[in-house]
Amino acid sequence: MLPSRTVSDPTWVRVRKVRGTSGLALGLGVGLPRLDARLGPDLPSWAAPYLFGGGASAARAVLGAIAGSLITVTSLTFSMTVVALQLASSQFSPRLLRTFTRDRVVQSTLALFLATFTYALTVLRTIRSPGESRDIFVPQIAVTTGFVLALVSVLALVLFLAHLARELRAETTLLRVHAEANETIRRVLPPRSSTSLDVTPVSPPPDTLPLRAGASGFVLRMDESSLLSAAVEADAVLLIDCCPGSLLVAGTPLGAGWPRAAGSFDTDVELRLTRQVSRAISTGPERTAAQDVTYGLRQLIDVAVKALSPGINDPTTAVHALGHVSIVLCELAGRQLGPRPLRDERGDVRVMLYQPNIADLLTMTLVQPLHYGAHDSTVLAQMFSLLRDLAWHVSADQRPAITHQLEVLRAQAAGQRFGSREMARFDMLSTQVEQALAGRWAPAWIPS
Prior knowledge:
The protein has 3 domains: 10-168, no CATH class; 183-189 and 293-437; 209-284, Pyrimidine nucleoside phosphorylase-like, C-terminal domain (Aldehyde Oxidoreductase, domain 3, Alpha-Beta Complex). It is built from 14 helices and 8 strands. It has helices at residues 10-39, 56-92, 97-101, 104-124, 140-167, 170-188, 224-233, 267-280, 295-307, 315-333, 358-373, 377-391, 399-414, 420-437; strands at 209-212, 217-222, 236-240, 247-248, 253-259, 281-284, 340-343, 349-353. The protein has a 5-stranded mixed beta sheet, with helices on one face. A 3-stranded antiparallel beta sheet has the order 4-2-6. The radius of gyration is 30 Å and the shape is flat. The relative contact order is 0.09. Mean pLDDT is 85; it is low at 1-13.
């Protein structure tokens, strides 16, 4: 299992940012009054009109008002953030909560509010009024800085409200998920090669060593170099039957291994190989976009399915989500999909990693929306358009997967009670898919 606190954990990142900002505010709250005490009457005359000019009681009133109002605003901001998370979970998908909690504007706003509150309290303790045992002291620079921080906090609150309203829009949420999915795809998958690669499936012998998962959870990362090193060290061939995003159960096989030469592993080699493979595959309680190229698609499909539920009934959002799915699938079609071999220095295949192909991706993205949105003509039309757009980006060996899904869509549309106009539209879109598979363009309308 990965450590409970990782760099990619948005909650831990937020805690570190707030803690660091509050520490900086605490340092300023201690340092600026000392600077005031050192400068004293040596302050330049031109700065006097811009600095706080009240007495000790007025300074205490200002800083007390700043501290009291900032803690109230911070509570309000936390409440609005929680409401936003609830709306995102109920309207879109629970898997989108990570996207909202990682928002830098939310983190920066909360950090600024807490830092201003900390600064005001720290400076407040240094003010001394007449009649106290020590000399009167009003840190003009420190109080003025607190006033400026309060104004900046008010501006940050206004910007936060505008940002929150923008982030709760379905279009903004889908665009952010889409961008993150594309970033993961481009980072993890290499571009599709124009030359055919040798990805002949590895055929395991009858007596193979099951490689069991060391911990339960979703696969977060796979250390390919460690897997290859383990295979070379044991002089073995490994077949890994999972990928980032797969759910593993501790003690169940995640793949298999066998010696390259005839025979079986020694007991020590077997134990060491199993342990090395288990360490190379990190698991966690939830999926992330670190190496999971299908996680973005899963989120987009969840939004589409949620929008098609009777409680929400928002087919427009479903169509919009399927449009983003189409773009992500086209990006995936330009990448190296399917099983991927890892080779040693001599070019021999030592590890075969499972990766979804275009047929797996189409099944994942179309089955649920088709099940819940088959009665809506606009949703079905968008699915036909998705196949048409994807047909322009796939290679020849990927076209049968699109042809199969086209037949499924045709059968589903024929089984619904649509009017003649909708059926004619489906026929036109179906023709466009066929023409695109053949490399020919077909118009979306018939000239009169």
